[in-house]
# Entry
Amino acid sequence: MDNKYEALRLCNQLCFPLYAASKEIIRRYKPVLDELELTYTQYITMMVMWEHGSMSVKDMGKVLYLDSGTLTPVLKKLEQKGFITRKRDSADERVLVVTVTDEGMALRDRALDVPAKIACTLELSPEEAIMLAGILRKIIGEQED
Amino acid sequence: MDNKYEALRLCNQLCFPLYAASKEIIRRYKPVLDELELTYTQYITMMVMWEHGSMSVKDMGKVLYLDSGTLTPVLKKLEQKGFITRKRDSADERVLVVTVTDEGMALRDRALDVPAKIACTLELSPEEAIMLAGILRKIIGEQED
DNA sequence: CTCGATTAAATTGCGTGCAATTTAATCTCG
DNA sequence: CGAGATTAAATTGCACGCAATTTAATCGAG
# Structure
């Protein structure tokens, strides 16, 4: 019986599987990231730091799609752990520049095998992975890295 | 230069787009759900209620992949709004049975156009949607159900 | 040069998510 | 039957995510 409520059924939605899959992947990261004593949000923040070395909170937010309300406490935590420094830009004191420390860069080597550990739990074919990445990029917006 | 750190780059990951896409979709729900005065979590909970009418917290958790720590406050909020009732099962007092009210069922009609409103912002082809749903199911279901 | 507008972070408040623990009810097995 | 194991929710504590507001610095039109 496909009635007028059919569209409301959970199983017909894309949103819910997307939401559930996202949480499921973060769950799989947990044991791996626990060894580095990083949360998932701290991990993706460090990925940006490893790649860029130094960046304003605003730019970090653009890359990660997070605002200062989320980032400020995450960055303070990472500073506390010694992986980054937080310093106002002398040219514009409104801007806070985040910079990775030597200790932060050292962490990168300890994180080298994280992607492989996650990837091997996914069991997606390369074609599926490429297809998924493309569709997700379309949902997220367009620009990207 | 694809060096040994290449795998760590944010753009090469699937996890991050998945996480970003999930948040992006929930963001798109917000204005639509605001009209119903529901959060996204409350909305998916009501979807289950509309479909099943009555269910234990445990079973609800299995469907939504959420535990009682998350569900208890959500269900209390929905009870407070008058959309559901919460009552211990007389046959087994450990079990709390959640049941949709008439007011809760009435909300269903007001939510009828929510899926269409979201779908039309996605701009995915039917093939892409089917492909995406399949891949996500694979990710979600790999070690459970 | 100045004052209102704009901008970048920080702060506040609320609602998740989830691990870990607690409480209460039920089950199991001797 | 009865004590320990198991189970279902609730509770506690922490870390997001994001809207809204606040604070401080800079910009820009007049």
